[in-house]
UniProtKB/TrEMBL annotation:
Keywords in alphabetical order: Signal
Signal sequence region: 1-20
Keyword Signal: yes
Protein name: Peptidoglycan binding domain-containing protein
Record PANTHER family: EXPORTED PROTEIN, EXPORTED PROTEIN-RELATED
The encoding gene: yoaR
InterPro entries: Glycopeptide_resist_protein, Vancomycin_resist_VanW
Top-level lineage group: Bacteria
Amino acid sequence: MRMIVLLLFLFLIFPHISHASVMELYDEQNDSWLIDLKPYIFEMDEALLNWNDIEDLTKYMQKQVYQKPENAYIAKNGEIVKEKPGLALDVNQFHTLINEFYYSGADNRRLHVPKQKIPARVNEELLKEIKEKELNRFTTRFRKGNIERTRNIELAADAINNTVIFPGEHFSFNEVVGERTRERGYLPAPVIVKGEFSEDIGGGICQVSSTLFNAVDLQGIEITERYAHSREVPYVPKGRDATVSWWGPDFAFRNKFNQPVLIQARTIGGEMTVAIYTSNDATLFQAKKP
């Protein structure tokens, strides 16, 4: 009885295998993890593998192996930087290898973890094609001597730069730029709150969203969400602004072309410019006849 109680106690304390303890071997030369299968064998029946634990191991390995793909992008000098594929665990092959390796009776029960490439969403060829035709561009100006506001504008412009919106796809400024925090480099600068000037982290990014709005406000782009400031702003004509804030107003639109649309955003000196591009073959979606 005491033995049963002790086993239950140990099971509660150590319900899962420590994957880190069985994955200490990494083959740097072949860029491969090595897995020891011994901890995944049922102690009461060595002819069986414990697939519940192996499923846990699989989830752990997915996190270890995963590398996010990097899209191709256009550098500041105008050259296209080639995409880089990502990596993911080949789950089916991983499980197949475990079965084959274990049931083959091999004494050495260590195996290389199989990987598969994840293609980048935007590759070099696509960028070359959708950079052919400029649809529109818009420029606004700011005082570069205001270091905090300039910094915020630069960060937000960099965030939307090289964004590709595929046909029918929806763009959200807040989703693309992300939360404006000190940790991400944003600084306190003047903002408009309920018609009054105040200071908050990320002040100035509304100039980026407003510049973007004026650049994409054209045939083929459907504006789905836009809000005006509670008072006029000096960097765009009256009624041509688009205010944004985290947990608040967003600026959003949808691509109605049959080809992807590319956003290029630049800050040079005291100017911020957004240019919109697509392919020479781009046309508007045709409504289906009833």
